[in-house]
From TrEMBL, chains A, B, C, D:
The keyword Chaperone does not apply. Catalyzes the hydrolysis of 10-formyltetrahydrofolate (formyl-FH4) to formate and tetrahydrofolate (FH4). Keywords: Hydrolase, One-carbon metabolism, Purine biosynthesis. It holds the Pfam family Formyl_trans_N. Its EC number is 3.5.1.10. PANTHER family: FORMYLTETRAHYDROFOLATE DEFORMYLASE, FORMYLTETRAHYDROFOLATE DEFORMYLASE 2, MITOCHONDRIAL. Gene3D superfamilies: 3.30.70.260, Formyl transferase, N-terminal domain. Residues 3-79 form the ACT domain. This is Formyltetrahydrofolate deformylase. The gene is purU. Pathway: Purine metabolism; IMP biosynthesis via de novo pathway; formate from 10-formyl-5,6,7,8-tetrahydrofolate: step 1/1. Transmembrane segments: none annotated. PROSITE patterns: ACT. One of its GO terms (molecular function) is formyltetrahydrofolate deformylase activity. The lineage of its organism: Bacteria, Pseudomonadati, Verrucomicrobiota, Verrucomicrobiia, Verrucomicrobiales. It comes from Rubritalea tangerina.
Amino acid sequence: MLILKLSCPDQHGIVAKIASYIASHNGNLLEFNQFTNTLDSKFFARVEIDTSSLDVELASFIAGFAVLGESLKAQWHFREAPFKLRTAILVTKTTHCLNEILWRVSENDLPLEITSIIGNRAHCKTIADKEGIPFHHVEMDGELKNTGFEHIAKILRDEHVQLGILARFMQILPNWFCEEFSGKLINIHHSFLPAFIGANPYRQAYNRGVKLIGATCHYVTSDLDAGPIIEQEVKRVLHSHSPQDLMRLGRDCERIALARGIRYHAYDRTIIDGNRAIVFED
Amino acid sequence: MLILKLSCPDQHGIVAKIASYIASHNGNLLEFNQFTNTLDSKFFARVEIDTSSLDVELASFIAGFAVLGESLKAQWHFREAPFKLRTAILVTKTTHCLNEILWRVSENDLPLEITSIIGNRAHCKTIADKEGIPFHHVEMDGELKNTGFEHIAKILRDEHVQLGILARFMQILPNWFCEEFSGKLINIHHSFLPAFIGANPYRQAYNRGVKLIGATCHYVTSDLDAGPIIEQEVKRVLHSHSPQDLMRLGRDCERIALARGIRYHAYDRTIIDGNRAIVFED
Amino acid sequence: MLILKLSCPDQHGIVAKIASYIASHNGNLLEFNQFTNTLDSKFFARVEIDTSSLDVELASFIAGFAVLGESLKAQWHFREAPFKLRTAILVTKTTHCLNEILWRVSENDLPLEITSIIGNRAHCKTIADKEGIPFHHVEMDGELKNTGFEHIAKILRDEHVQLGILARFMQILPNWFCEEFSGKLINIHHSFLPAFIGANPYRQAYNRGVKLIGATCHYVTSDLDAGPIIEQEVKRVLHSHSPQDLMRLGRDCERIALARGIRYHAYDRTIIDGNRAIVFED
Amino acid sequence: MLILKLSCPDQHGIVAKIASYIASHNGNLLEFNQFTNTLDSKFFARVEIDTSSLDVELASFIAGFAVLGESLKAQWHFREAPFKLRTAILVTKTTHCLNEILWRVSENDLPLEITSIIGNRAHCKTIADKEGIPFHHVEMDGELKNTGFEHIAKILRDEHVQLGILARFMQILPNWFCEEFSGKLINIHHSFLPAFIGANPYRQAYNRGVKLIGATCHYVTSDLDAGPIIEQEVKRVLHSHSPQDLMRLGRDCERIALARGIRYHAYDRTIIDGNRAIVFED
């Protein structure tokens, strides 16, 4: 099975051209998702192709698409399934998001191969050890911040990491880091963005007396907490919930929003479009 | 704008053929929704086509599709937008579903033209009068049931009704009626089907102590409460809610599920597939 | 039936004292809701009392409570049920919130008597006329703003209005107005506050690419959009929804959040505590 | 801190009597939840008492309550906090519910001490070993069923288990077992009961074409799938979801409903009332 992700300026006949190319080589469309943004005339698509009866080699099929892709002035990407994305998980102290990811990987809910867990604190080492996953403790307090991020970047490069998950990693990323790994870093923010940007969102939510709290899974950009949103989740709360209760309830939002966001990304169901994310849900 | 709805046995190249036909006449795809049921090899699609730059007359474009449609062994249907479905609303006493529909029609949320309101009780006549909509009071108690349904069928035929909405119409429909108007009758059932089939579902829900109640919008078939489900809605309830409270809270579920179900149907976003409904959500 | 609402500094024995007072006069507790905020040692309660077997006159029972209330340094309030709050609805052009309120009043979902509808535009006059409710068209564009609000204040005073509902009333209220009717004005804001404060929240939500939109029902204070939140509602949205779609979907959030917020207020289920609202849900 | 749970026939003055008893010994009410079922005149309450300034020994305070409890013809129960319920988890093959419980115990979300994990298959032994929890593999296929349940009962007795969690334990329990551990067994059923009772509920849900699936956490009674419901959770599904997708999505419903249900039970927030459960949510 092959997944094709494509975006290009809108024009007549795109679907016909893509579908015809696939059909002409005896591929079978399993799922075709398309979105035309009429506000700015952009076209986005995600296609699942059954390649079991292709009349050419898979590599030739993929290479041959370039002629069409270029004529459409498109950006496109093929991924052969099944696959596992090489993934590093960045953590600080809290374990709930880490645990959620590890559990879903073990259930085959998420097509990831966890190459390592990276922590600026040592708290999650026990979990890594239990699961037999390498753990890198990277000191980055105070003056060590820059060298810490250089260290992490080296790990990501050395391990050929395709996806970095910030699973409640409590560090502000430097711009160069965001840019080097642009589109490959997913964060979970513990509020319903854009509400309660910044520190201590559950305390802010308590003080404001909101009736729903939330969590936001988004791509990381150098503009803190403003990256394209992949998924959000909310939960009803009561006046009787203390800030600690909100944190407890919020953990469930975070786990759910992060897990779904990773899944959408891993299965190529997301296309970044400026500061928005197109998400073809499943 | 033209909406095409199509279902056929699955086979290679369907999307390519449909999209190529449209592109070959200079139509532009605005939205393409497709679903392949791999369990029984059926293909379903809904297509929105911008026809402003077609190179043939619309009628020719539609007629010309027949060659392709037949070769695919498809069932298909075109609808030109904007349009208004000629719609009758069947009611008994309660007004909340009726009110919801009338309000949404007035807001242009639902593309309906209400031809008349039909009641086996006179309770809703006041509302019909206020809105300037004809009201038919059809007596159908006891022995009058059969003649009552014959009367209603005559009204639906005479008014060229395309859609009949059972907005809490508390009568069991005879088979012949379900069959004559098959696919054209939408009901709102006041429970989360298939739970609590039958009379007094809110009382049943109270007795069972459920923590969520719901409502189900479905196509009417001769098998009572078993027609294809279009939409469902639920709401959390507490032990402290009496059966009357459940009725009150349930009304909101009913209004929402019915309004969304009608919208999906009216915009041709539903395809009936046996006792299931394919619903391309918007 | 009598509703008692009370708040006071926390101290030992409050519940015992209140419940004993009621029992000593042969009242029966139907519902007792209590919340102790341990962060700032405040006590809040709402009590429903069956007064059918009271051993004194209702007026004496209420008057006699003052001794206890004062000893607790409490603020308290009794309301005899059934009752109807004299209510004015303030509108501009859009009708969905107005319609929702009128429908719920007619269903006895909301214990309100609508004294009048006040509009700074004439759009809603048709609805008012249909329902036989007085409509005041108050011009308040540009220079007329101040005199407009004075006019509205006079109407509220003359009609002995106990509750003013801003049902998508698109005007910023002057401080003096907020203060004169403090605790008696409920607004529906068309976003999930505190996100997207200010103009055009649905456009802001589209631009930010959020995956959920919402609405917030809150008490009006002179600090715009920062009043105590009574209720919030959210709804999932997709990348394919245009700003117009968000407005359409948002209307449902607004109707639901506003209706529930009004209900909580009308049945004395809310207690304002600084910029938060205690809400004893039903 | 002390938790009191009480139910009795409704009568005047119950709250006053209970609260006065507590106040008379200088206890402080932290939380008072009460529900009067007017349909059958029953009174239910849950009280949290700060006992730090009691003027008697805790044991005396508890013992002394008996006079009042008996005069009210009540059933009541005190629990001193903090506490940990001795809990056994019964499993078959699937791990998601087990993992969820273990994770929440480690986060102090659930006040449980897991005494052992009991499996009629060996699949979950790895997890038990990792966490250092004893694992009992009890064979119970075919003829071994009765001796298997006797074995389990012995384990529960020997380990002084206060709560048994059926975390997707795929065995029908014999009546004697349900009765011996009545009120101490919590099950998670993988459907929105009472819909889809019996085998393969996700397949049933697929066939019926429902738009929401769910899970139900309930007390176990000898009447299969009919025990008092503690919590339910639902999730929206699409026509494109296969039965396997429904299982995957359903797992999240199961984890959430089970975790919340256990929490309510463990903190004495539930009172069984016939085949309904009163649940004072937090």
